[in-house]
Amino acid sequence: MEALLEQIFNGVSLGSILLIVALGLSFSFGQMGVINMAHGELIMIGAYTPYFLQSESGWFDGGAAGTAFVVALPLGFLAAGLVGVAMERTLLRRMVGRPLDTLLVTFGVSLILQQAARDTFGAPNVDVVSPTWLTGRWELLGVVMPHRRLFIIALVMLAVAALSAFLATRPEGRRMRAVMQNRDLAEVSGLSTRRVDRTTFFLGSALAGLAGVAVSLVGSVGSQVGTGYIVDAFLVVIVGGLGKLRGAIVGALALGLLNAFSEFWTSASIGKAVVFVAVIAFLQFRPNGLVSFRTRGLVA
Amino acid sequence: MKTTRPRRGLMALFLLLAMFAAACGDNNDNSTATGGGEEPAGGEAADAPDGDTIKVGILHSLSGTMSISEVAVHDAELLAIEEINEAGGVLGKQLEPVIEDGASDWPTFAEKAEKLLTVDDVAVVFGGWTSASRKAMLPVFEGLDGLLFYPVQYEGLEASPNIFYTGATTNQQIIPALDYMVEQGMTDVYLVGSDYVFPRTANKIIKAYAEEHGLNVLGEDYLPLGETATATVVSKVMDAQPDVVFNTLNGDTNVAFFKELAAKGNTPDQIQTISVSVAEEEVGGIGVDNIEGHLVAWDYFQTTDTPENEEFVAAFKAKYGEDRVTADPIEAAYVGVHLWAMAVEEAGTTDVDAVREAAKGLAFDAPEGPVTVSDWNQHISKTARIGVVNAEGLIDEVWNSGEPIEPDPCLEKYDWAVGLAQGECDAAKEAA
User: A91, B244, B293, B378: least surrounded by Cβ within 10 Å?
Assistant: First the structure.
């Protein structure tokens, strides 16, 4: 029983990480049809933000690592968002509706960003100091819940809540949904799809930056930190279904739990294989993912 | 207006792409400049005319998941080359390092090794960290009859005539660590490792040892290299409540593993760990708080008390900065360069056969203490040490083997290890 609860927590915890890295992608890929291979590098920008504040900027010397981390959350969000906007303005807006071109172009951008990170921060991976208030843990029904994990779960819940409120109530959010559902109709109705695309891509990129700050708590940070998450992020968006926030949430949770349990019952290496086999089998029955959505999606 | 704008935009895009391409090209040029070895160690090499230098290859992962460990090894090799050059070089010639990046990718190691041997025509290559990279390079060095100095402890069961192994083999690190565990009464063991050849072979040896010495192996888990989702494995370990985790994880996964173990509330007096791929260099990345009090097994620590080590640590810090640390593979890489230079001096040539012959029985006062090259298997005798991570992130020795242990890569001296070796050492034996 205890082991079961423990695995549920581990699964939810992994799911929260998957969700936060996939959230941004569900906008850029799910809603705009941009196969953004540089999503991982936007995560990397976010992950380097707390490191930069803690170790290189010199603004938070003398045990203020925790403050630096908190500041890194909005700053990482903004930094990645701005890089995303720069990408959108210079490259991607010329490729609306050409997903395969975006794949190649964003892959190139990802290589450039990785090299830039290596030149700026050096090749060896670096460690982000966790704030002291995140180093503790709670125990409930025999399940050990590290604060760090709870923090990521809370952060992703907050992000999801803010996003759904934004999409449902703000005019910009409603415009985003309109363009996603039918680009041509939105355009003839007088919406500037370009401006909406810019907002969508900013949001997608900025969320990747936020994810980066979060995952810097889990492992170490390096130029390739994003590449480890990019496959998982696409997996979540595809399993969840394109273009739906709800899909990404369900997809991330399902994958997290499946991963935790298959790893627990078999071994870590077989667990990984089990997850991929399950995803392939699942997509045979539901090619449009868990939450399907009538859209021309990628071919629009 | 409407029609000209997109065109202008298109022009701008082309311009931008051209700029990107140019920036990219620059980047590539830069990386070949460092990668191509035009960066001399100390500045003399570049000035010397071609015939007066000996090219030596350096091939480590300067990027990717293994760079956390390998960059420092590459630094140590450059330090040794600089020392040798300052003392007049080898055979009166300066050494000229040619640096390549293996990028944590095993086929890249093979490809770059071939490039170093055929295009750059280097006399020797110092390189590799993971056994997977060594196994990928091995056929290249055997096929082209090159020479590789490999500086990291490994799983044994190998003795290629084209490789010198300056790190520990199993009977100089893992077996002493197991002996130490038995001595300390730590009998319930959980095996955690990265999913590649070193941890899997090492655990095969550990299980054979466990059967003979009454250790209980409670579980065995492997994580892919670079994996950071360690929560489930840590849960399994905590549920099993072993006395000790024998940790053969490599690279970044160590960071996530120790962070998670500490976050779940484990302390070394509950579940101890003994790591064979975590040294001073990695402790910084893991965070001292997460690993303080845990055990590591090596043949050298920065704190090892020899006059040679005092000099070595001082030289390393002087060249690379006070905040840098030395560690076992760093020291082994440094020793490797010096051993090769001594062997070349002895042989009077860089010819591979002559160097191999001259290296036999070569003794050197290394920072870790006296080492001697074996007369048949190209490993070196080393003193095994167990240490505990202290609050400064350094390692305090708690046990050592007292004298250098003869390398026994195929574990022929151990009855319980019969059958583990499948004749890997026979060729080397016959040749000797």
Answer: B293
Residue B119 has what pLDDT?
93
The residue behind tokens 């981390």 is A69
Residue A11 lies in a domain: no
Q: Which residues of A touch B23 (CB under 8 A)?
A: 112
Find the domain containing A143 and state its range: 18-240
CB spacing of B223 vs A269 below 8 angstroms: yes
**ipTM of the complex model:** 0.73
Q: Is residue A266 part of a domain?
A: no
**Which residues of chain B have a CB within 8 Å of the CB of A123?**
62-63, 67, 71
Cβ distance B221 to A146 less than 8 Å, yes or no, reads no
Contacting residues for B267 by C-beta, under 8 A, at least 6 apart = B293
In a domain, A208, yes or no: yes
B289 Cβ under 8 Å from any chain A Cβ: yes
Contact criterion met (CB < 8 Å) for B62 and A3: no
pLDDT > 80? residue A289: no
CB distance B96 to B42 below 8 Å: no
Within 8 A of B67 by CB-CB distance, chain A residues are 123-125, 222
Helix (H, G, I), strand (E, B) or coil at B111: helix
Q: What is the mean pLDDT of residues B260-268?
A: 89
Q: SS3 for B243-282, per residue?
A: CEEEEECCCCHHHHHHHHHHHCCCCCCCCEEEECCCCHHH
Q: Which token pair is B3?
A: 């029609």
In CATH, what number does B171-299+386-410 get?
3.40.50.2300
A290 has pLDDT over 80:
no
Angle CA B84–B312–B172, to nearest 5? 100
Query: In this complex, do B222 and A224 lie within 8 Å of one another by their Cβ atoms?
Result: no
| Both structure tokens of B415 | 């009855």
Secondary structure (DSSP) of A209-229: HHHHHHHTTTS-B-TTTTHHH
Structurally, chain A folds into a number of domains equal to: 1
d(CA B313, CA A56): 26
Report the alpha-carbon distance of residue A96 to residue A90 in Å, rounded: 13
Compute the mean pLDDT over every residue in chain A, rounded to the nearest whole number.
83
> Any idea how long chain B is?
432
Quickly count: other Cβ atoms within 10 Å of residue B49's Cβ. Answer: 6
Length reported for chain A: 300
B22 touches A: beta carbon within 8 Å: no
Determine whether A278 is exposed, middle or buried from the number of CB atoms within 10 Å of its CB (0-12, 13-18, 19+): middle
CB B395 within 8 A of CB B303: yes
Per the DSSP assignment, residues forming a β-bridge with B379 are: B165
In a domain, A278, yes or no: no
Please, what is the Cα angle at B279 between B275 and B282, to 5 degrees? 105
Pick the residue from chain A with its C-alpha nearest to B255. Answer: A219
What does DSSP assign to residue B120? Answer: S
Residue of chain A with shortest Cα separation from B22: A112
Q: Please give, rounded to a whole number of angstroms, the shortest distance from the CA of B63 to a CA of chain A.
A: 5
| Interface contact B235, partner A, CB < 8 A | yes
**Whole-angstrom Cα distance, residue B98 to residue B117?**
11
Q: How far is CA B104 from CA A84, B62, B117, B151, B284, in A?
A: 28, 8, 20, 16, 20
Q: What is the CATH number of domain B8-168+309-382?
A: 3.40.50.2300
> Which among A94, A264, A269 has the least Cβ separation from residue B224?
A269
Kindly determine whether residue A146 and residue B260, on different chains, have CB atoms separated by under 8 Å.
yes
For chain B, which residues make up each domain, given as ranges? 8-168+309-382, 171-299+386-410
Are A268 and B256 an interchain contact pair (Cβ–Cβ within 8 Å)? no
Q: Do the domains B8-168+309-382 and B171-299+386-410 sit in the same CATH topology, yes or no?
A: yes
| The pairing of beta strand B395-400 with beta strand B148-150 | unpaired
Q: Give the C-alpha separation, B157 to A251, whole Å.
A: 45
pLDDT at A257 over 80: yes
